[in-house]
């Protein structure tokens, strides 16, 4: 048989989806017998449910992609095959661009060279605007994130806490997808050449990192989580060596060691034991490690996609969030998360405003990230976000009365000193490379 008929392909994909759904329900029921839903380790059960929900989308898509590539179905005519081409090639055109050198080879995160040179006043005004946008959006996002996952909502005499982290991830992702999609519609983006299915890998890791981040707030304080994010340079370096065989400078290892020392001092010196429970502490640490691992994979996979297919930052944002919406919605439907979250929102109207503000601030923050990097570069963006992390810890301590001892404050200072050292030496290293390259070009002439 030379070609796999569309009807057969459709039946195989549907059968895979139904089979995966049934298998996940059975496995989930068996897991519930082992893990108590009301215990401190019930997050393990929710994590398993989340993975099984993602599998009901991932496995049918894998069958679709495998059979389509095997039988070259995306080369056929017709609307349905155009959608398949978008999934497999990133473009609906039957003629696939194979020469990336014919397109813009300038990194999409760099400022466009054809734009007029702006005055110092205009540059300063744009920088202040981007800095204010990042600080406001992400400070608001952090405060609301902690409020939703840790504070109690009152309904008369009844007190409840919201527990479904997956729903918050879904709302954030669907709004970010809408923001980036509208931006692409009203702008003139580069030609898209990234197969949509390749976004799925970093989409899964991205949603799981966000899930771990929300779940961790049930066991640890927000300052600890923020400082752990500052320490993610360590797993990113390890993941880079594992995936891309990246070589690092001595100052990168030194600053990573300082960040580890600072994190240890903070954790030992902060009296935050939310429940004074060993199980709680272990759960919080495991979830933080999960966040760091998934987030470091996301960064390295996205970096590989940028190098291979050259999407713009907004195209990457749109593609990843589209896949995240598919995965999280399937998981929520399977777990009954939509019904629980909507009924919770009906009982507590203030939750709706908190949830929407969190999603809006997260999506707006992503757009400010793109604007800042495109105009001022990654180093300026890193400095702004480092300051934001310090302000987030300070604001959280003021609003939610987290206590920090002298040792804990020393740990915070060490972490941020290490981050700024990394920025300084990284920038100095880039200048040396540029000077060496310029001298090499002069010698050739």
UniProtKB/TrEMBL annotation:
GO terms for cellular component: endoplasmic reticulum membrane; Golgi membrane. The keyword Membrane applies. The chain crosses the membrane at residues 7-31, 43-65, 127-144, 167-186, 251-269, 281-301, 378-401, 407-425. It holds the Pfam family UAA. Keywords: Membrane, Transmembrane, Transmembrane helix, Transport. It is a multi-pass membrane protein. It is found in: Membrane. One of its GO terms (molecular function) is 3'-phosphoadenosine 5'-phosphosulfate transmembrane transporter activity. InterPro entries: SCL35B1-4/HUT1 (IPR013657). Belongs to the nucleotide-sugar transporter family. SLC35B subfamily. This is Adenosine 3'-phospho 5'-phosphosulfate transporter 1. It comes from Eubosmina coregoni. The gene is EOG090X05CU.
